[in-house]
User: What shape does this take?
Amino acid sequence: MRGRLTTGFIALAVCLAAAAAAEPLSSRIANYDIDARLDVTQHTVTAREVLTWRNTSSESAPDLYFHLYLNAFANNRSSLMREAGEAVEDWQRDKPDGWGQQAISRFVVDGSDRTAAIEWVHPDDDNVEDRTVIRVPLEHPIGAGGSARIEVDFTAKLPKIFARAGYAGPFHFVAQWFPKIGVYDGGAWNCHQYHLTTEFFADFGVYDVRLTVPRDSVVGATGERQEEHDNSDGSKTLRYHAEDVHDFAWTVDPRFIEVTDHFDAVTLRLLLQPHHVTQAARHLDAVKAAMLRYRDWFGAYPYSQLTIVDPAPGGNGAGGMEYPTLITVGTSWWMPAGLRFPELVTIHEFGHQYWYGMVANNEFEAAWLDEGINSYVEGLIMDERYGPQGSYIDVSSLRVDGIAARRAGYLAAPSHDPLTRYAWQFLDRRSYSSITYAKTALLLATLDRYLGRDRLHVALRHYFERWRFQHPTARDFIEAINESAGEDLWWYFDETIYGTGTLDYAVTHVETEDALEFAGAHVPAATAEEAAPAPKEKRYRNQVVVERLGDLRMPVEVTVSFEDGTETAEWWDGTDRWRRFEYVGTQRVDYAVVDPRHKLPLDINLTNNSRMRDQATRGVIRLAGRWGFWFQNLLHVLTGL
Assistant: This one.
């Protein structure tokens, strides 16, 4: 009896575990079934997709909006190519036949052929020649809570790689390649055009994709390979399946060298170019370091596979990108161990499996929510794994850590745009990168020092757990951090996220003068006995002035050091424009430092954080500081992957 009960409990446990494993992680709104064939000679993909889409909004949908991303590479008049400027001319000169395109030959909704009803729209700008978004009016609206079956036959011509997708010789990277439905929310479609600095936004779903490619191809793709078989025409077909993801990318190259490894229950599949095979350990070590810390800090990676792709020479434009369960990296055969670009790119792109992959913010409208948070965590992992000094670069006497790298990026353009600017509306690419990546990383690093790292990490985990497999906004992020931290931090986020002001505290005045000697009538003591007068000792009146030169306000520490080696620690709430500290005593002030423990990584000018009493010495320090500023900008160039 006991044996039968034990067997029964085991069977029940197995069934419950299987049911739990099958429980969807996301709402699965957009579900794709795609059959695709790649012609590696013509660089075309011919495909049929069947999309099952659910209307989870409270409003009927009278039409459908789809992205046709590859049309951004159809000519030099698309919005993306116009924004690229001279880079397009250089690319076109080198690759005159490299244009891409996407065309739909059949579009059927619930049995109704809507191909002739397709119209081009451009919701972001007035560029009528941009062909990256279509609108399809429906014969019958899709009601709230309803669903539709959408069948699309299409052809995608891959461009020679310019940005993210395309081909370089036999290397093909196929991303943003299928007509992809927008996000319907509140009775309106969120379906932006493809811009130079924008990435993506889509609903979660299940992807079942069959890829037919030449038989000698080595293939990597989103999801897990379910089956593979050879065809009589010299091709082979592979089937991939992915659940609770919002995109599907794949790559083909017969020259890939495959290296496999594991982390926990996850299979790691590294597809390297032959001349980079000696760097396999660098990529695998980096991704394991990232997976370990993300698991411990935020939660386990929920998929069974991760594919890491090394683009071919000439295909660098496809490097450094993130897709569900697949990332692209980048290296060079000559890359010395101390130039940790392969490591930082690998760690950064894996981080996007969390910030973008699972916590799926709108990258068109709030790119900082993934790029910036990811950059902050990337820096922590790099510093922990490769040492707090020189984690990014450690070559000879040149050592750059995470904060230094981000400061160099931020100082390139610290105040042109707020974080809330839509990605394509920034002043230029430099401002986009400076604000979206570097400023966000630094504002989090500053918050890290204000709250304490443990409190911030608990808050970020709370945000992750609250919003994974959903679409959070800036307000959702702020409210999650406030809730977890147990205090209202809107004062900080209002200025750092919604504003363009900078943080700059400076010691502007250190002065010592002889204290006034006693003059005037002597007033006797109130007691009958007078104390004997103390021997005279020279006394000084010291003044230290600290100013807030920027618009951002933060509490700040000030340390004042005296000639005898003693120090006085002060605290200032930082709200006024200046604060004076005065000291009268037998010691002269030697120097003063604002933010002595470097708790304000957002401070744009560290060269004015200290000041000595001696003018000549101060001049030397100022000269050294000016050199340091230019050196930081050199590092920005060196780290501009």
Notes: The first helix runs from residue 2 to 22. The CA atoms of residues 228 and 238 lie 4 Å apart. The first strand starts at residue 30 and ends at 39.
